[in-house]
Write a structure and sequence with these properties.
single chain, about 200 residues, alpha+beta, 4-stranded antiparallel β-sheet, two-stranded antiparallel ribbon
Length: about 200
């Protein structure tokens, strides 16, 4: 990961240098964003935080520097921001408000879904607030580890985890991903459990 971050940083530097050399950097906004969460178990393609949280960095000569936002932002907000920065009239059907150089109308919740991913058909939905995240699985009998070809080839850790499970060496939190089925519902307190390890859905409290 460190090698990848250093390489990425170098490449972004080349792009910024090129914009500077072409004399267009003062008229450019750079939005750096990932297309999915981390490439690990419970990451890319899943509805836990490690699968949904992506990098989002906005840079430009007219964008305030060093500001870190903790607002809930989704891709519809990015589309609205690009249109606004370009001076376009925002269509009424947009579902997200612009958040760059504007008073961001912070959302109470954002949503995500997991449906068909390669050969695995799911029907999972999540709603995320600042404090809680709720996930509902339409097909709980399909396990997280569904034997998907992509993970078989590109997640060597998965094979190690399976062996450790056979040997009884996984903690309950680690074994969660390898359970024979998913829970129908998951509820997490993101404030006290940011890694989403304690499912509160059956908690009376």
């Amino acid at each position: 990961y460190l090698d990848q971050m250093e390489y990425m940083d170098y490449e972004v530097g080349l792009i910024l240098d090129d914009l500077e050399a072409k004399g267009v950097i003062d008229n450019t906004i750079v939005i750096f964003i990932g297309d999915n969460g981390r490439c690990n178990l419970r990451g890319k393609g899943y509805l836990h935080d490690s699968g949904l949280r992506i990098p989002l960095i906005v840079w430009g000569r007219n964008v305030p520097e060093g500001r870190v936002e903790d607002a809930l932002v989704d891709v519809t907000d990015i589309s609205a921001s690009i249109l606004q920065l370009a001076g376009a009239e925002l269509p009424e059907y947009l579902t997200g408000p612009p958040f760059i150089n504007t008073e961001h109308q912070e959302k109470e919740y954002i949503y995500a879904a997991r449906d068909l991913w390669d050969e695995v058909m799911e029907k999972s939905r999540t709603i995320i607030g600042k404090r809680y995240k709720y996930i509902r699985h339409g097909h709980p009998k399909i396990p997280f580890d569904a034997g998907q070809a992509y993970l078989e080839f590109y997640r060597p850790a998965l094979h190690v985890m399976r062996e450790l499970q056979k040997e009884g060496k996984l903690t309950a939190e680690q074994a969660f991903f390898l359970a024979p089925h998913k829970p129908e519902e998951e509820l997490y307190d993101l404030q006290n459990d940011p890694h989403e390890l304690v499912n509160l859905v059956n908690s009376e409290e």
